[in-house]
Amino acid sequence: MCGIVGVVSSAPVNQLIYDALLLLQHRGQDAAGIVTQQERKFFMHKAKGMVRDVFRTRNMRALPGNAGLGQVRYPTAGNAYSEEEAQPFYVNAPYGIVLVHNGNLTNAQVLKAELFNTDHRHINTESDSEVLLNVFAHELDKSTRGQHLTPEAVFDAVAQVHKRVRGSYAVIALIAGHGVLAFRDPFGIRPLSMGRGADGAVMVASETVSLEGTGHVFERHVAPGEAVFIDLDGKVHSRQCAENPKLFPCIFEFVYLARPDSVLDGISVYQARLNLGETLAKRVVSTVPPNDIDVIIPIPESSRPSATQLAHLLGIPYREGFVKNRYVGRTFIMPGQGVRKKSVRQKLNVIASEFKGRNVLLVDDSIVRGTTSREIVQMARDAGARKVYLASAAPPVRYPNVYGIDMPTAEELVAHDRTVEQIREIIGCDALIYQDVEGMKRAIGSLNSKLDGFDASCFDGVYVTGDINADDIARINEARIGQEDALEEDTSRLALPNAQDA
């Protein structure tokens, strides 16, 4: 997953893009980059690290211009340790194009071969975003045929991209001397929204929170398959470029990824999480008698709305029992040393008085590997809880994600090929309650009747693009970022700044 933003204004945009990226920091903490344009020249700075660390005063001064784009990266394909794979990516022909991308291409290897053998374009990294940029650049070159660039020529190129590319992609590109382009894949798997400032500036970004937080008024979401071109005068052109677009947003955006104060495809993320708590309440009652639960405690941070609603409906006290240390970063890798895993106890501390002598229901947004859940359950027991129940606002995560979430291989997923009772034994809780898949879809889907469905592949194994089989998943897993090394490093969600912390 990544966060992307692009803007066209009548004033310098460097600070505006920086501020927008801070609001999207929860979507990626590995690297950050900004590019601006002045008089057809691009100015770029990108590096590994958080936004506040990558950009210093000297870097910001070196980013002049009234149009630009930026990205925060949490890598899922390519090389996690290469600064060359931080975005934006650049090609000098045609026109000069820089691009940022949120998502994951499922046919990147096929496209690489086509680019080399047929299109005669060079790919210099393992990033699928560079592949996407070169496919678009090649199609734009064909659609313009050396003529002056027009919005229609840009849209024709995007239409060809849709025909060649598979997977998920929300894209923002800056074409030198012409404007900013934004488009989504035909299923709308990854989010993209557009807003306008009081001064006429037009911004496109992954989440509405980055629009509103920078003083822009939300106008609309970019539709699946649609392309929006904003010329340097701020005029907006748009066209549907896909032959059969359908809206199947990633349901994990609502479960965990997005900030609760964002609205994605017409759905309030906060309300979606409240609804998940409501449907979860029915599952809890069928498993554990409410009078056997003394207190409901969320596991910070994304589970709080669901836990609040659950406690309200069951009439059980809601308490904060864990305090998250927001300042625990990633482990430093010293020469000659392996990567040291950090304990969950460095990131969470218990308020023992909320556990001692009580039957506690812990609520989490989802359970992926199960290792964090196991340690948290043990922390509750160590704090004196009589019984520890665990409820997940999401169903069991049984399948890998191929659309841009760093979801582990099937073998690493605690729910893969296991019953709920087997998972309960591994985690060590007294009862384990999961949301059911259809209940989750109804709870969130009821907030927008115009949705065609969801990509819920990590829960139900149905890949909406229709081009994924077991061999594809194995191949994509082989390309996972620093797979062997990353497994030694703590990449759990507790190790990263959360939506509420951003």
From TrEMBL:
Pathway assigned in UniProt: Purine metabolism; IMP biosynthesis via de novo pathway; N(1)-(5-phospho-D-ribosyl)glycinamide from 5-phospho-alpha-D-ribose 1-diphosphate: step 1/2
Catalytic site positions: C2 (nucleophile)
InterPro entries assigned: GATase_2_dom, Ntn_hydrolases_N, PRTase-like, PRTase_dom, PurF, PurF_N
Entry's Gene Ontology molecular function annotations: amidophosphoribosyltransferase activity; magnesium ion binding
Catalytic reaction list: 5-phospho-beta-D-ribosylamine + L-glutamate + diphosphate = 5-phospho-alpha-D-ribose 1-diphosphate + L-glutamine + H2O
UniProt: Mg(2+) binding residues: S302, D364, D365
EC numbers: 2.4.2.14
Keywords: Glutamine amidotransferase, Glycosyltransferase, Magnesium, Metal-binding, Purine biosynthesis, Transferase
GO biological process assignments: 'de novo' IMP biosynthetic process; purine nucleobase biosynthetic process
Cofactor(s) the protein requires to work: Mg(2+)
Pfam families: GATase_6, Pribosyltran
Record flagged with keyword Magnesium: yes
Annotated Gene3D superfamilies: 3.40.50.2020, Glutamine Phosphoribosylpyrophosphate, subunit 1, domain 1 (3.60.20.10)
Cofactor binding, note field: Binds 1 Mg(2+) ion per subunit.
Domain Glutamine amidotransferase type-2: start-end pairs: 2-233
Protein family according to the UniProt entry: In the C-terminal section; belongs to the purine/pyrimidine phosphoribosyltransferase family.
Annotated PANTHER family: AMIDOPHOSPHORIBOSYLTRANSFERASE
Role noted for this protein: Catalyzes the formation of phosphoribosylamine from phosphoribosylpyrophosphate (PRPP) and glutamine.
Record-given protein name: Amidophosphoribosyltransferase
Source organism: Caenimonas koreensis DSM 17982
Gene name for this UniProt entry: purF
